[in-house]
Predict the structure.
Amino acid sequence: MSLFKVNAKPSINAGRILPLLPFIICIVAYIITAQVRHDENPKDKLVPTSKQLIDGFRRSAFEEDRKGEYRLLVDTIASTKRFAIGVAFLFLGVIIGLNMGMLPYFDLVFYKFFLFFDKIPALAILPILFIVFGLGEVSKIALIVIGVMPTIVLDTYLRAKAVPREQITKALTLDASHLEVMYRIVLPKIFPKVLETIRLNFKAVILFLIAGESLAATAGLGYRIFVVRRYIAMDIIIPYVIWISFLAFLADLAVRIWIRKKYTWMDK
C-alpha cells in the first residue's frame, strides 16, 4: 500500500478527489449532528440545519435591514478596508527589517527593540490603544500593526542576514552603491519569501481585526458576529465565519498565484 510510502505518486483522480475529502467529512458530520439535535429539540439554536444556514445567509446578503442596507455587503467592505490598510502597513516592516539586516548600526539600534516588541501581546494593550487613539479606525489598524509587523520585521531581518556576503562584496566591487545592493540585489532576492511570511500571517491580521471590531465598531464582519451572538443567532454567525474564512482563502490564493507567476525561478 503506497499510502505510507514517502515516494508515493498519487494519481490525477486522487489529486482531484482527496483534497475534497476532509471538507465532505466535516459537512456530512455537521448535517448529521444538526439533524439529530433537531429531532430531539426542533427549537435548537446552537446547531442550525443547512436550510436555516442558507436562510440566514440570504437574509444577511440579499435582504435590506432597517437602514436599507445589505448587512453582509456593508460589513465586508468595512472589514476589507481595514484588512487592506493593515496589510499595507506590514510592508513598512519589510523596509525596516531590510535596513536592520544590511546596516550594522540599524541592527544595533533596532534589533533588540523589535525582538522585545514582538513578545508584547497586542490584545493586552488594546485598552491602551482605545484610550490613546479613541474608538475609531486608527486604534484597529494600530492593533494589527503592533500585533503582526514585528514578526515581519524580524523575518525580513533574518532573510537579509542569510544572503551570502560574497554576493554583496561582489556587487560592491562592481561599483554598486550600498543602496543599490540593498534594494536592487538583496530585496528582490528575499522578497518572495517575505511575501510568503506576510501571507501566512493573514490569519493573525484577521484575528486582530475581529478583536478590534468586536469591541468598538459600527460595521464589520467581526462586529456583526459579536452583535448577533447576544441572540444566539448561529444561523448568522456560522455563515459569517465561513464567509470570513472564504475571503481569507481568496486573499491567500491571490498572493500565492502572484508569487508563482512573478517569481517563476523559485520553482527551479
